[in-house]
Amino acid sequence: MNRYHICLSGSGGQGLILAGVLLADAAVNDGKNVALTSSYSPEARGGASRSNLVISNEPIDYPIPDKMDIILSLNQESCSRFAPELKDNGILVIDSDLVTHHPPIRHYSVPFTKMAEKAGAVVTANVVAISTITALSGIVKRSSLEKALEKRIKEKLWPINGIALKLGFNCGRKLKKNRDEYFTY
Q1: CATH class of the domain defined by 3-184
Q2: pTM of the model
Q3: What integer pLDDT is reported at residue 42 of this predicted model?
Q4: Burial of 51 (0-12, 13-18, 19+ CB in 10 A)
Q5: Which residues touch 11 (CB under 8 Å, ≥6 apart)?
């Protein structure tokens, strides 16, 4: 596909604005055009947070996507609110730890929070999630996402985020390889 419309959604404090910036940086590293818009509620933590990206091989004339190719939902509120924006053949990926009422459409349910704990810090769930959807969809190259992470993350936090990145890529490859097993209702 030459153009992706992506929504990264959840609550404040889950790092979705940073996740959008990381994907945008990775796409630029791949020589693609990117438009990134973000919105968040005034609360520091707990309010709604969303990053929308348009990633394209061609110039982007309108930066606001209407229907999404990929939606990542890291909490119930964002899943309920944004899942209707998914294209018919789009990819919905939810955090199975935090989304308890799964939408009645095909989706991937992944325990991002538990995987982030395994990496060493719950705050890396955003990195686990974007590396999972990257491996699943091929939006950007792994090396480009690694380069973006190294650029944006403090050096002392790189080891934990590197583990999170690896866990996410392994998960995404597994999901892609066994699509029918993991793509559920």
Answers
A1: alpha beta
A2: 0.91
A3: 55
A4: buried
A5: 45, 46, 47, 48, 49, 74, 75, 77, 78
